[in-house]
Design brief:
This protein has twelve helices and eleven strands. By secondary structure, the chain is an alpha+beta fold.
Length: 351
């Protein structure tokens, strides 16, 4: 069994005292941290809820998100997500948790972290059965309205006019798509050879050869889907998980949201929302005509990203960096994911 001194502070009881010292220094007030509860869902950032009682009398329910150095998308930095939440705060129809503090200094708790308010609500998860549960959820027009409106608000945000201008693609707006393709090709790079590596190489070449200039250079969430928002009383209370946000083509989010991995079918988004109605409302409110050829292309990129994530999971298991049985189970999905990827390329090539 590992001794406490062999673990990073964020993995031990020392997290509370480290948070107290950090928050006190940032807030200029004394603080008592208690009631820590770690959530086990997710493969990337570690999420811990806690209570902070300040000397001034404030009593806050907070969340700390910690970028595990051995996490699926490591290495992490908390600064971009803090910048996004802080900049986007107050945007109409885009509910967000309030961002408080962050640090990328590993000396504080042993990993980058971000502290935000704890938003009330539950996280609806994708429904894969397509049965009565999905049909009932699909009738929740208010929730679908909020889901569409938040995405329209993200894509319509004037990112060039403030701090988010630093997200501009290095090669200009026209390079946004190819930059994202190259990002995921690099992430999937692996010393392991074999059929999987050949399939990924072929898909990467196809994506590069068929990349088109972005239809519009907008703020893209990068992981917009059922499962990444909080809901309370039938309405969305917060859009979560901004770690993959960047400037790119709006069709990227529009393709990702309907992935089968997240409960998407020919008629449903995330197993919850009517697919045709989602796209109809988006076109109407964003005042943007969806290019279905672009959707096909970005569905290929989305599937490639899923395959790249599986490559990363397998790589971390081989390196012995993690011992999460879920990552082992994920690796069993690679053949099916790559078969889907080849089928999507074939379908997109016919468009």
């Amino acid at each position: 069994m590992l001794q406490r001194e062999c673990l990073q502070a964020w993995r031990t009881d020392a997290l509370a005292e480290r948070l107290e010292a950090f928050i006190a220094a940032r807030s200029g007030d004394t603080v008592r941290v208690s009631d820590l509860k770690r959530f086990t869902a997710g493969f990337s950032w570690v999420t811990v809820r806690f209570r902070a009682v300040f000397g001034s009398g404030a009593d806050l329910a907070l969340i700390v998100r910690i970028g595990d150095p051995n996490g699926l998308l490591a290495p992490y930095t908390a600064r971009p997500e803090h910048l996004l939440l802080e900049t986007l705060h107050g945007t109409p129809r885009l509910p967000l948790p309030k961002a408080y503090w962050f640090s990328d200094d590993p000396a504080v708790v042993g990993a980058p972290f971000l502290i935000t308010e704890c938003v009330r609500g539950v996280t609806p998860l994708p429904v894969w059965t397509g049965g009565d549960e999905a049909k009932a959820a699909g009738d929740r027009s208010d929730l679908l309205d909020d889901f569409v409106d938040a995405l329209v608000a993200i894509h319509g945000f004037a990112w060039r006019e403030g701090p988010l201008a630093e997200l501009a693609p290095a090669g200009g707006d026209g390079s946004a798509t190819i930059g994202e393709v190259e990002r995921w090709i690099a992430f999937a790079a692996s010393p392991v050879d074999g059929p999987n590596a050949l399939a990924m190489h072929f898909a990467g070449k196809w994506l590069t050869a068929h990349a088109r200039p972005a239809a519009a250079a907008v703020l893209v969430h990068g992981d917009y889907r059922v499962g990444n928002f909080m809901a309370l009383d039938g309405r969305i209370s917060a859009i979560l998980d901004w770690e993959l946000a960047h400037v790119g083509d709006p069709h990227e989010d529009l393709a990702w949201v309907g992935m089968r991995t997240f409960g998407g079918t020919g008629t449903l988004i995330g197993g919850l929302f009517d697919r045709a109605e989602f796209y109809r409302r988006y076109e109407e409110r964003a005042r943007r005509v969806i290019d279905w050829g672009a959707i096909r292309y970005f569905e290929v990129l989305s599937q490639f990203k899923m395959a790249a994530i599986l490559v990363g999971a397998e790589r971390r298991l081989r390196e012995g960096a993690v011992h999460d049985v879920r990552l082992g189970a994920m690796s069993l999905q690679m053949s099916r994911t790559l078969m889907g990827l080849m089928s999507m390329i074939k379908a997109a090539a016919r468009c």
